[in-house]
Amino acid sequence: MASIQERKSKDGKVSYRAQVRLMGHPPQSATFDRKTDAKRWISETEGAIREGRYFKTNESRKHTLGEMCDKYAQLVLPARGASMQRSQKQQLEWWKSRLGKYTLAEVTPALIGEQRDYLAQYGPSNALGTPDKRPSPATVVRYLAALSVAFTHATNEWGWIESSPMAKVKKPKEPKGRIRYLSEEECAALLDSCRRSEHRYLIRSFCLQSQPVRDMAKSCPCNGRTSTFAGSGPFYSTQRTGIHVLYSYLLN
Question: 70-125 pLDDT, tens per residue?
Fold first, then answer.
């Protein structure tokens, strides 16, 4: 059931108070200067309530991003490890300083993307917006992840927002990490430990440069063929970006 009441103030100004009442839901009301706006609001509100969209949207206008970060820090972070507590608290404080006054309804992927680019260019500790030591892509990803998990709780558990805007925010690409290659002595020690293991089907997996492979194997396993590795059992080699990943099975 919906109704519109015409009201007139002391100075003669006319306004229209629209109210929507649906069974099983609290009444909702809003005031407009034009009657056509009141009718439009009634139609949109009734449809949103029936579809279960209205109250989440309404909640997102009541809570700010700063409130979301504070609630996450108070309720969720204490259950995390000490290291994660320190890092995520610092990351969320940065987001609060940049977007804390915005309501959740106002926080869009484009707005978050602007702050992501600012973070990537100036870093989290540069409040003046002057070029400083740029953070790595991994750092930017961690800051985005902290905000994303807070939005996840606001969406799924607190009902403050219908969907997280983070799903549409692109993360910077992280470079591949440094590869630690085993030395020939380490390879020999690893093989010896595997041979002495009691596990029947132990898989030995390690990364080697091609030169140690040529030195220690009867043939260089660069083409994905089975070969014999320095008196051990058979192994299979695959090559990805110059790295030989060897899978060796102990059959004894």
Answer: 999 999 999 999 999 999 999 999 999 999 999 998 899 999 999 999 999 888 87
- Is the Cβ–Cβ distance between 69 and 99 less than 8 Å? no
Q: Which two tokens stand for residue 100?
A: 């804390």
Task: Express each pLDDT in 210-239 by its tens digit.
Answer: 344 444 444 433 333 433 344 444 443 434
Residues sharing a CB contact under 8 Å with residue 203, sequence separation 6 or more, in sequence order = 247, 248, 249
Q: 184-192 long-range contacts, Cβ below 8 Å, gap at least 24?
A: 184/212, 184/215, 184/216, 187/212, 187/216, 188/216, 191/229, 191/230, 191/232
Looking at residue 191, its pLDDT comes to 74
Q: Which residue has the tokens 């990537």?
A: 120
Q: d(Cα 17, Cα 34) in Å, to the nearest integer?
A: 10
Domain ranges of the chain: 2-52, 65-168, 184-249
Contact 175, 205 (CB under 8 A): no
